[in-house]
Structure formats: structure tokens, C-alpha cells
Amino acid sequence: NIAKKLFMQKPQPQEVAVFGKTGDIEAVFNAAMDNNNDWFFVVATDNSIDTIKKLSELAQTHNKVYAVTVNDLTSASKLYGEVWDNTFVMFHDDKDSYAAEALAVIMSYKVGGKTAKFKTIQGVKEARVSTTKLEELHKNNIFTYVKKLGVLQTSEGKMISGEFIDVVLGEYWIRFRMEEALARLASKNDKIPYTNAGIGMLVGECEAVLKRAVDQGIVEANQYKVDSKPREEVPSNDVALRKYDYVVWTALLQGAIHTGQISGILTYDMVNEEAK
After folding, report:
1. H or E element, residue 250
2. Main-chain phi, psi angles of 252, to 5 degrees
3. Phi, psi of 204 (to 5 degrees)
4. Which of 30, 39, 74, 158 has the fewest Cβ atoms nearer than 10 Å?
5. Which residues on neighbouring strands pair with residue 89, listed in sequence order?
6. What is the pLDDT of residue 262?
7. Which is it for strands 219-227 and 248-253: parallel, antiparallel or unpaired?
């Protein structure tokens, strides 16, 4: 059922790896890591509280993002107060909804450049939850699937820690793209010289990634910078160790509008009366 729900989303996931039908969840996770670590989102058929806590710890440690749906409010309440930045939890009373797991597919495209709120999940019906309970869930950073103005949509988009999902994904996008860019730089050059010119090569790659992050919708245009320390100011011990830890980038998150109030005035006077 879970695989079917994942492939119902549009666009479909390019690839889904399946590991372990039974057994210790940590052993299964590690087996997946050993086989091929080139994956990011984690889902599981087991949504017991013990499994959720163990997978959340593993995802946090190994820089993966874990999505899970809980099917009763009692289970949801056992997750109140958790602070994992890499886990998002949805409540849905239908055990076959796999709402959060399907949302992971939706969020795997244009990573960091779209919000997880207001998203329509294919093949998932509205969750049955009272307004009071919905407010309680939201207060504890668990969200669900509701109908607003006739449109089915996710009611929020936060990690269980309270951070927005798109912010966490955006941070990872920048980190991974910078790692890739700097690895390519090292591989295609005979060496990166320990000179101001070599430092400039590192800075240039970081600036290029941040520019891509603007196009991705993660950071705001013209609101990022990359600072570095010139070769003359680097301790000689770092030079001897061939270590340079002095590139620091800063960027303004673009963010997204989730709530707001629009104000207006009703009047008996003509609003757009043409000038005479």
C-alpha cells in the first residue's frame, strides 16, 4: 500500500528502494546505508512510537529526512515535545493514507523552493479531526490533511521541532550542492593552490551555488555574501596541514507566506472615479 501511494503522486518518484520486511529497524537502516547512501527521504510501514523515535534519531544522525503518519491521537500525543529537525509527522485516521510519506515525494522536487503547506496529496481523503484537536496538533508541530474552500490540502508544513520543512530542505540543498561543487573543483584541477587565487576559487564555487539557490527559491536575490580570510592572515599551522576553514557564507532565506490578514474599507464613495 505504501509503495502504491508513493507512486500515485505527481510527478512520480524516480526510484524507491525497499529494505527489510522484518527485523531491527536500525539494522535495516544501516543495511540501506551500506548498500547505497545516495538517498535522502526515509519512510517505513511501521509507525509505532518506538520505531518513529528510533528512525528519527537515525535520520538526524545521518542527515536524512524522515516522514511518518500516525493514525490515532494517543500516538500523536506521545510525540509532543520532540525536537527532531529531520522528522515531519502527520496525523490521519486512515491507516492506509500514508499522507506524510506521500508528501515526502511531493517535497522531493524543487527541494527547498516550495512550502509543504497547502499541498494536495493524490489518493488521500480528508482526515477526521476536530478543530480543537487540530489546534492541539499544530501547537505540537504535527499537521494533517483538511479541506478548505472545497480543496483538500495539508494543514501545515513543519518538522516536529517546529522548523519549516522547506527551510530544512533548503539548508540541505545548499550544503549538498556546495559539497558537490567543491569536490568537482578539487578533481578537475591539479591542485587548489594555498594562495589568494586558490581561496578565490573556493569562494567562486560557493557564490555560484548561492546564485543557484536564488533560482531555486531558497534565498533572496542580492541578499547573500561569501566571506573569506586572505592567505596572509591564515595561521602557518593550517597551511602546513593543508586545511582552510575560513570561507563563511550568509544568505537571507526567501521564506513563504502561510498566514496573513488582508485589510480593506467599504465605502459609499466612488473609488476609481475619473478625474474631471
Report:
1. strand 248-253
2. -90, 120
3. -60, -40
4. 74
5. 68
6. 66
7. antiparallel
